Every structure is written in C-alpha cells, then in structure tokens.
C-alpha cells in the first residue's frame, strides 16, 4: 500500500476494463513522473467525454451535437441503413470507404445468457426509421458470432413484411490470411459463398 | 476516427505505458457509459497525484509531505538501510513484515545501454546518509538481474571503506515453486547458498 493519492489513483485505474493491479501501478508511477501538462490533458479529456459526447438521436452513434457527423452529412444517401452493434463498428466500416448510406447502432446484440433481449437494443427506433419509406436496403452488419447472427436473423424476420431488400455482410476467408489457418466454419462459409470469376 | 472528444481521449489513453490502441478504445467507451461520479473520481485522482505526491527528501520514496511515512515513523530503527531501485520495491518488502529499519530508493539501476550511470541514481545522497554513523548495516535489495547485480556490486565497493556490514538478499528457489521449473542460474544459486538444517 502506498500513501494516499498514489494508492487512490492505483485503485481508480484498476477499475478500468483490461487494467490489472500491475498495470494500474505502472500507469500510476508513469503519471507521477510525467509532465504535468500531459496529465492535465488526460484528466481534461476524461471530463470532456462525459460532458460533450452523447448519442445521436437518429442512429445512436457517438455524437457531439444532437445528430452525429454521418447523419448530418447531406452528401450521404438515405436509401440504405447499415445496422451495427457498436459505434466502433461504424468506424471500421467507414475506413473501407465502401458505404455512403446511413447507420443504425443497436448498442449490442441479443444475448439471452446476459439478459440482453430485443427490448434492450435500439430495435424499436430502427423500425420507426424504416417506416419513412425512403429506405430501400437494410444491411445487417452485426458481428459474425452467435449473438450477432441471432440478432441479424431476428431483424430479418421483423423487417421482411416491409418489402425491403435485407442483406448480410459476406462471410469468407480474410484477405491476406492463410487458407490452412482458417477455421472450418469460415472455410465452409467461403465455399458456400463462392463466386464465378 | 471518432468525433472530437472521444478521439482525444483515445489518443491520450494510448500514450500511457502498456495501453495499446485497442485497449485505449475499450477504456474510452467504458468511460463514455460509466457513472459520471466515477469518471470525476478518476480525473481528480490523476490531478491529485501530480499536486500532492512528491519524493521523500531523505529516502526518495513517494511521500505526501517532506518525509515519507517510513522516515517519519519513530518506532523504526536507524541501524539498517535497505537500498531498493523503485518505490514499488519498498511496498513489496514492507508486505513481508521482516524489516523494521529505513529505506533508500535509488530511482533505478545502473544500465549503461540506456545511459543510466551512478550519477543518475540517488547514490550521492545515500553516501551522505551513511556518514551519520548511526547506520550499522546496508542491505542491498536491488533486483536480481544484470543491472541490479551491477548496482549492488558498485555500491558494495563504494561502501566497503566505511566499515559497515553490507548484505545482499538471498537468491534461491522461490517458495511454492517447482524445482524442475527453476532456471539453471537460480538453481545454481540455491545450491551455493544451501544451509544446514
């Protein structure tokens, strides 16, 4: 145990996800010897995230005003909504430059074991958006794992009566990967989804 | 890239030791959805470490006043000084409850490859303390690695003319460990230092 302030900081850091007692101690001693300006910047950045960042009232992505940058952008089209689990998935898809429509962030995936059902996700808000009539395609880009697949299946069933085109991102071999290291489910999906060249 | 404040926080967190881009993002999103009171506490703890914590003017351990808790404690004796590299080593030794003397924190170990020589450590200050005459034993508790051994050897040579008892912590098998998993140097030391029972 250290004296007062340094032990308090170790305790607070230890509460963060992925920071164990050893890393908390290491970070605390780094802070102790760091430039006061850098520490001030970190502590201000923490406060500002709480004060300024909220969730877009349309798509629930992170935003600094009522709507996020993407929902506000008039150069993007309203014909397709790409449904993802988390804001970080929006960032990942934006990096590809492949999509120019809008997003909808569910805030997670259906996971009965953790008590997360459809009502805990932003599904009702998605349904309201789909009723606008402008949207022609719903792209289901939830994670390719059990919870993500379950959520995509659930959404596909709900949306079907609306006559929209509903798509799911392709599963297959990761580019740059080695065929022999692919797991059997991925390799199976790659076969299923094979395309003529 | 995220909007403003959240990206700033990811960038700031990414500068901390042992926090990569993925963990920085994970912590930033945790902060975003955390209780504002918890975030305030963390940001205050960061500031307080910079404002309140300094180094003990006697032993260079972390302290909140001019002297650290151990140097101020009148129930501890002044006959032995235990020399360690870092404040965290003081904490480790205090946990054993084996030592009731004082400490001296060098602030590192001699490491020519990283440009750390004797002048970069608190060795001059240690020599001044030893001249008080009260001290009978100097316990060298630097790390049992190349840099720690070099530092201990250097200190032993410097202190020898003063006629003090100079000791080094025992090397040997860790308690609770498996003999077969001990590396050969540790096992060699354990043989060397074997004791009659």
TrEMBL record, chains A, B:
Q: What is this protein called?
A: Recombination protein RecR
In this chain, the C4-type zinc fingers fall at 56-71
Provide the family line. Answer: Belongs to the RecR family.
Q: Name one GO biological process term.
A: DNA repair
Q: Does the keyword Disulfide bond apply?
A: no
Short name of one Pfam family: Toprim_4
GO MF term (any one): DNA binding
Q: Which UniProt keywords apply?
A: DNA damage, DNA recombination, DNA repair, Metal-binding, Zinc, Zinc-finger
Functional note = May play a role in DNA repair. It seems to be involved in an RecBC-independent recombinational process of DNA repair. It may act with RecF and RecO.
Q: Could you tell me which species this protein originates from?
A: Virgisporangium aurantiacum
Q: Which residues form the Toprim domain?
A: 79-174
Record bears the keyword Zinc: yes
């Amino acid at each position: 145990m250290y004296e007062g302030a340094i032990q308090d900081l170790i305790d607070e850091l230890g509460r963060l996800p992925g920071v164990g007692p050893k890393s908390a101690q290491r970070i605390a001693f780094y802070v102790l010897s760091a430039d006061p300006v850098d520490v001030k910047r970190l502590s201000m950045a923490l406060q500002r995230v709480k004060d300024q960042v909220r969730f877009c009232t349309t798509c629930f992505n992170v935003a600094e005003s009522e709507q996020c940058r993407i929902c506000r952008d008039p150069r993007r089209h309203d014909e397709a909504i790409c449904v993802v689990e988390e804001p970080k998935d929006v960032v990942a898809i934006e990096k590809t430059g492949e999509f120019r429509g809008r997003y909808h962030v569910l805030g997670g995936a259906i996971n009965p074991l953790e008590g997360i059902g459809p009502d805990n996700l932003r599904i009702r808000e998605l349904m309201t958006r789909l009723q606008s009539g402008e949207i022609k395609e719903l792209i289901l880009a939830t994670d390719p794992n059990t919870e993500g697949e379950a959520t995509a299946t659930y959404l596909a069933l709900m949306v079907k009566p609306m006559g929209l085109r509903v798509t799911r991102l392709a599963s297959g071999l990761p580019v740059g990967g080695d065929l022999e290291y692919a797991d059997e489910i991925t390799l199976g999906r790659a076969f299923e989804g094979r395309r003529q060249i």
